[in-house]
Design a protein that fits this description.
The chain has two domains: about 1-150, 3-Layer(aba) Sandwich (Leucine Aminopeptidase, subunit E, domain 1); about 160-485, Aminopeptidase (3-Layer(aba) Sandwich), CATH 3.40.630. The protein is built from 14 helices and 19 strands. It has helices spanning about 35-40, 75-90, 110-120, 155-175, 185-195, 205-210, 215-220, 275-290, 335-350, 365-370, 380-395, 405-410, 430-435, 475-485, and strands spanning about 1-5, 15-20, 50-55, 60-70, 95-100, 145, 200-205, 230-235, 245-255, 295-305, 315-320, 325-330, 355-360, 375-380, 400, 420, 445-450, 455, 465-470. An eight-stranded mixed sheet has the order 7-8-10-9-13-17-14-15, sandwiched between helices. It has a six-stranded mixed sheet with strand order 1-6-5-2-4-3, sandwiched between helices. Strands 11-12-16 form a three-stranded mixed sheet, with helices on one face. Bound molecules: ligand BES, manganese (II) ion and zinc ion (ZN). Ligand BES binds near residues 333, 335 and 428. Zinc ion binds near residues 256, 274, 335 and 336.
Length: about 475
Amino acid sequence: MQISFAETRPTGDYALVIPAMGGNRPALGDRSAALDGALRRQRFDGEAGGTAEHYLDDDGGRRLLLVGLGALGKPADSAEKLGGAIAAKLLTSGETHAVVDLTGLDFDADSAARVALAAVLRAWRHDRYRTKLKDKQKPTLATLTIVGAAAGAETRWTERWAPVAGGVELTRELVAEPANIIYPESFVARCRAAMAGLGIDIEVLGEAEMAKLGMGALLGVSQGSVRDAQLLVMRWNGGEPGATPLCLIGKGVTFDTGGISIKPAAGMESMKWDMGGAGAVAGAMKAIAGRKAKANVVGICGLVENMPDGNAQRPGDVVTSMSGQTIEVINTDAEGRLVLCDAITWAQAKVKPTTIIDLATLTGAMVVALGHEYGGMFANDEGLATQLTAAGKASGDALWRLPLGEAYDRLIDSPIADVKNVGPREGGSITAAMFLSRFVDEGVKWAHLDIAGMAWSDKPATTYDKGATGYGVRLLDQYVADVCEQ
Ligand code: BES
Ligand code: MN
Ligand code: ZN
């Protein structure tokens, strides 16, 4: 969808969108009795994101869409609800152009730009394989014009939020694509294409290179797959030359069958999005490079496919990780931590970061605990946890902190190796985090974000339709803006 900004409403054919501030008071000047009646019949009360429609007889039958802004407590929130409602209502409505008039609202430049952001995000769809879509199902809305925005809104859109939308879209595409299309090598190829010209340095390690480095935990997962595993490293150097970069690490299991500890058939197709952490890291890199963030950031994706096979690893196998620690693989379905531990060790050896944030669709237990409202956060540093919580609130990608601790760590001691890859059923997300913590070097600030409940949604929300959400991109972008660029 194209976004444009204008001082006054254009002429010609378009749907007019009028935000209604607080209660039932759309800023329409003299309202006709017919409009008042229409609003009453539609029970329009100005609730944030609520809508009502009317057709203006005296304006060629133009469609009028009223969108509530609620009590306007937080303009940025109302702004996103407004943008999201415009896209949700008009995307396939037959209208090709929508004009939203913000005149008289106290939206600052950022809030006005966020109307555009939310509309663009809410309009995203993945129709690539739908060859028989009926005309009525196809998107029509091609342009959104924002009228009466505060000075600086257009710059805010082009310089901050349009690049972020591009990053979210990359993540959603990677997450939505099926696993016969997106596997480790094609994940890398998609990222290369999507990041071309942005100034991101890309390095890729294949299985031979990883074997030389002793990454036996990651490679053990990949062993049953005909696809070559990849470690994708993306470097953005927008900050002080030589300054230590922030390290982002993503779990990129392009399909998780569970391996020999195979998952039940029902719902297994959802494991195509078990690369949601890696997808978020890739999208975040695109976003921060796209807006030329003044920060140094390295994004690392551990990309593998977890398959059962004659050559697959078995429950009980002992593998040696790059750190030298040996791991008893009790359950081949607890593969994400095996991928991440070697990626973390590689990052510490090569990048020597002071801060690592990893993102992973790591445990079903996380979904049981938090549902689909918060990503779970584990952190070994209070400051990092506070900053991430704040970035979560500001970006809408909410986080809730869970504990780490010695008693949980005892649950993954192995009788044959240094550690085992699963603990008991209870506290399953926490023991997964404890497993990762054993690979984090002394002095490194580290946060692990278990986003199993967030990468995919079965129902639409303000800024996404059902499907891939792009969770994590806005969170990481906000963290970089708030912490690394200050
Ligand atoms: N990718 C799954 C976790 C998952 C489950 C993500 C549901 C999203 C939705 C992960 O690899 C996994 O299989 N975890 C196991 C761990 C268990 C074997 C200790 C789980 O959660 O059941
Ligand atoms: Mn698994
Ligand atoms: Zn998995």
